[in-house]
Each structure stands twice: as C-alpha cells, then as structure tokens.
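Project outcomes to date are best conveyed with an example. Our students and postdoctoral researchers have been running inverse folding experiments weekly, and each run begins with a structure described purely in tokens. The record below, which covers 338 residues, was selected by the lab manager from last quarter's runs and is presented without edits.
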C-alpha cells in the first residue's frame, strides 16, 4: 500500500511554525510530505537551527510522489507560496496574511481534488490575518467554509478527547449558540468520527452542562433543562451513548474520564485548558466532518520564542503521525455523520 500524501502548512511565518516544519523534515514519516509555504522563510529557519532543508529545488506545484519527491531519500515535495514581505520572527506582518491563507486553501483544495490524502497545519495568528483584511476566526472555520460542510473541533492527547460545541466566538454569544440543532449535528459528527477514525465500536460521549454544576436543577441556569438535556434524550433514541449534562468541574476527574471516549464541552475555554494542561506537548487538534483528515498543532504561534529554536516540535510530530494514520484508514465520506 502506498504511503499517504500529506500537505504540511507552516502557518504564520513569524511564529514557530517554520522552525517546527524544518525539524519535521529531518525525520522519516509513514507519509509523503509536501510543504506548502515560503521557501525563504524555511531556509532562514533551517539556517538558524543549523539543520539541512531537504526541499526539492523546483518551484510551483511539485507534489510528493510526482517527480521531484525523493530528497536525500526523504519523500518530500514543495509548493512555493511566497510571502509579500520579509519575515521578522516574533513580529507578524499583516501584509503576509494572504500568503498564509492561500497556503491553507491550496492544501485544502489539494485534499478535495485527491492530490493529498490529508493536511497538517502549524499555528496561525488570527488577529494578523484579520489585520491583513481577511475575515478569519480559525482554520477550522476556514476549511469548513471552503469544503461547504459542518465540522467539529476536537483536541486530543493520550489523556482525553475534547470536542467543542462552539469554537471561536465571544463568551457572551455562547448561550445563544447552544441550540438543539447545533448539539445534534455536533454529537452525530463526534460519534461518527469516534467509530470511523478511532475504531471505537460503541462510543460513549460525556456532554458538559453550560452553567456551574450543570445548572443545579435550574437554580443556576436553564440551558441544561430546556436545551441540553432534552437534546441528549432525542439523540439517545437514535442510539448515541451520551452521558450528561455533567457538571464541568468534575467531569474530567481521572476516574470519570475512564468511562468516556470523548467529552463535549460547550465552549472553547471550558474544555481546552484541561486538555492542554494534561499534556500540551502531546495534544493535537482535529477537524472532524471534513471530507479529508486535517490535524493541527495544539499550540499557538508562540511569538515570544519564535526564531530562538526553543519551540518543542512534539505536537507537530504528533499531528503528522495522527494525520498519516487517519489518511491510511481512507477518506471520510461527505455527509457521513449527518
Ligand atoms: N493551531 C493554531 O493555529 C493555534 C492554536 C492556538 C492558538 N493560536 C493562535 O496563536 C496566537 C498566540 O496564542 P497564545 O499566545 O494564546 O498561545 P501560544 O500557544 O502561542 O503560547 C502560549 C505559551 O506556550 C508557549 N508555547 C507554545 N507553543 C510552544 C512550543 N511548541 N514549544 C514551547 N513552548 C510553546 C509559548 O511560548 C507561550 O509561552 C493567537 O493568535 C492564537 O489565536 C493558533
Ligand atoms: N482553538 C484552537 C486551540 O486553542 O488550540 C486554535 O485556536 C486553533 O484552531 P484552528 O485550527 O481552528 O485555527
């Protein structure tokens, strides 16, 4: 069986993404890697790390497995997406926002066209992309819009899998977004991905409440009684195994987590701090529901250490391994979870 072909996008060029990609290119993976980014930035990162940069010499659209693949025995391809202006590590320039987004969309289109079997992405600086005039709340949302499908963000490490009912939005908007329709589509996508991508035959998903102590029987909020609880009842009737709504403060106790294959948090900072605290360097960010696997690092652009060589590549390495494994299982079918 041929190795899966993965696109690797470094993300914000002034962040730690380029140096982490250079480190990834020193290794042999169970995948053919095609980097989509700015060659000069990668060369500068490699020079700072005193590491070789095994990219093929050709410019546009050289894809691993189609010509210029083997560099020093490593199956690597390269597609150049040059930045508009030079890069100063630690100081993102909004003028490079379009190159960042174009690289992401090139990878996504390549996956949809079947030229890649999955994509791995480094961290993107959301404010810089917007300052560059491009409306962007996250790569999850960008890829959902590009593919025209509903998706779910799930971060995972060896301790837990945490999916989110809502992603990048102001906290005050969260309660209004927790609707029966959102819960139904989110939980169906998570259930389907646990079965297909993680090989769990009968997944159990814990669902958190929104309010303290899951609303304390309505004393501390109505969402559990009016929306979350009834939604879970309807989905149980479809065969989903759902536990909750649970108080978020104790749902992650190790003894409880043992019984769950994933936890659905109602909002970003209800679930992700636990996941990142329990294993920042080992966690990855998956976009469930796309017609191809997409896996990202769990960390941000780390501008405070960009260019210093201190950035830990473990999350990127875990993302490549995870994406290669998912891609080898075969492409998700569009609409499978709906
Ligand atoms: N996958 C993504 O695209 C992604 C994920 C999270 C945050 N972000 C974005 O990144 C930007 C910065 O976010 P932030 O400052 O909240 O979080 P951050 O993860 O960039 O940094 C938080 C802390 O963790 C450290 N850190 C991060 N990655 C590290 C690594 N690989 N090795 C060692 N230390 C590391 C940083 O130095 C910093 O001290 C924001 O624009 C945010 O939206 C992007
Ligand atoms: N919510 C993610 C996290 O905290 O790790 C992150 O911001 C990146 O998400 P996208 O992959 O949607 O850019």
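After processing, the design step wrote out the following sequence:
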């Amino acid at each position: 069986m041929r190795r899966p072909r993965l696109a690797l996008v470094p993300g914000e060029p002034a962040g730690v993404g380029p140096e982490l990609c250079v480190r990834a290119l020193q290794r042999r993976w169970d995948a053919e890697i095609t980097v989509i980014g700015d060659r000069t930035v990668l060369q500068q990162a490699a020079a700072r790390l005193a590491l070789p940069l095994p990219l093929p010499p050709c410019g546009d659209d050289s894809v691993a497995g189609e010509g210029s693949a083997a560099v020093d025995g490593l199956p690597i391809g390269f597609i150049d997406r040059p930045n508009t202006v030079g890069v100063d590590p630690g100081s993102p320039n909004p003028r490079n926002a379009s190159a960042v987004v174009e690289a992401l969309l090139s990878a996504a289109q390549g996956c949809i066209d079947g030229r890649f079997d999955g994509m791995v992405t480094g961290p993107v600086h959301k404010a810089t992309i917007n300052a560059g005039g491009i409306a962007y709340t996250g790569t999850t949302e960008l890829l959902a819009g590009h593919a025209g499908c509903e998706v779910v963000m799930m971060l995972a490490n060896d301790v837990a899998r945490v999916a989110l009912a809502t992603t990048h939005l102001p906290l005050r908007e969260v309660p209004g977004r927790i609707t029966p329709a959102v819960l139904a589509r989110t939980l169906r996508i998570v259930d389907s991905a646990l079965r297909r991508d993680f090989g769990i035959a009968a997944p159990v998903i814990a669902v958190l409440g929104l309010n303290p102590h899951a609303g304390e029987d309505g004393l501390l909020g109505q969402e559990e009684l009016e929306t979350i609880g009834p939604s879970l009842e309807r989905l149980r009737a479809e065969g989903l195994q759902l536990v909750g709504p649970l108080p978020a403060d104790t749902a992650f106790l190790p003894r409880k987590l043992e019984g769950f294959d994933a936890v659905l948090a109602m909002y970003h900072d209800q679930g992700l701090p636990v996941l990142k605290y329990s294993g920042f360097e080992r966690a990855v960010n998956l976009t469930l529901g796309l017609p191809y696997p997409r896996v990202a690092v769990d960390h941000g652009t780390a501008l405070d250490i960009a260019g210093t060589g201190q950035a830990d590549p473990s999350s990127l390495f875990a993302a490549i391994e995870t994406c290669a494994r998912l891609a080898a299982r075969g492409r998700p079918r569009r609409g499978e979870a709906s």
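The first strand starts at residue 5 and ends at 9. The two ends are 30 Å apart (CA to CA). The training component of this project remains on track.
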